[in-house]
Write a structure and sequence with these properties.
Blueprint (H helix, E strand, L loop, with lengths): L6 H52 L9
Length: about 70
């Protein structure tokens, strides 16, 4: 005859599954944060370079000479 499943059996199994999932989420959270920071820095550099280029195309260079 099969054993009956008790509340303690279910709780222990749910705890092991939950701890496994939380461990995986913590690992992913760290790598996701790192990727977000790197992506932000790259995006900031791209906008900076494009802004400098656009600014140098639009601005007029005026040379002043003293006589």
């Amino acid at each position: 005859m099969a054993q009956r499943i008790t509340r303690d059996d279910l709780e222990s199994k749910f705890r092991t599954v939950q701890s496994d999932i939380q461990g995986k989420v913590e690992d992913k959270k760290q790598s996701l944060a790192t990727a977000a920071v790197v992506g932000g820095v790259v995006l900031l550099l791209v906008f900076f370079i494009l802004g400098r280029r656009a600014g140098s195309k639009r601005t007029t260079f005026v040379e002043i000479r003293r006589v």
